[in-house]
Specification:
132 residues, mainly alpha, two-stranded antiparallel sheet, two-stranded antiparallel ribbon, 4 helices, 50% helix
């Protein structure tokens, strides 16, 4: 018996026309904010405040950059602009750095044993390893 394997499971479902649920929520919240700014502010300021909010909402809902939502691009831009552009290396002493070196007190007793191996022994060992 053959079963149909679901594909494109990472794609969101379309709710209203070409809009997904999250795009629809962004559109409702953005247009609601633009409408409330338009209705509450006095005449010259209402267009100055409402139009950028409406344009930003349209960008978030409909524009994709490199097949990624505009909101990801916008958040990456904010992160880039807020991050420092220079890294400074302070040459000199660091006050909070502590270096602790541990050593054994009985260094004379613990010496590494050096074992000398001849070429014949190495060849015999290589032959045994190759056989297995």
């Amino acid at each position: 018996m053959r079963y149909k394997v679901p594909q494109n499971i990472d794609m969101q479902d379309r709710i209203i026309g070409p809009l997904t649920m999250i795009q629809f929520i962004y559109a409702i919240v953005g247009t609601g904010a633009a409408y409330s700014l338009y209705m509450t502010l006095p005449k010259p300021l209402n267009l100055i405040a409402a139009v950028p909010v409406l344009i930003f909402t349209i960008c978030i809902v409909f524009i994709k950059i490199n097949e990624r939502p505009f909101l990801n691009f916008f958040l990456a831009m904010i992160e880039f602009l807020s991050a420092p552009k220079k890294r400074v290396w302070h040459h000199g002493s660091v006050d909070n750095l502590k270096v602790i070196i541990y050593s054994n007190k009985d260094n004379s007793k613990q010496k590494a044993a050096v074992k000398h191996v001849s070429e014949d022994e190495i060849k015999k060992l290589a032959k045994k390893l190759d056989e297995n």
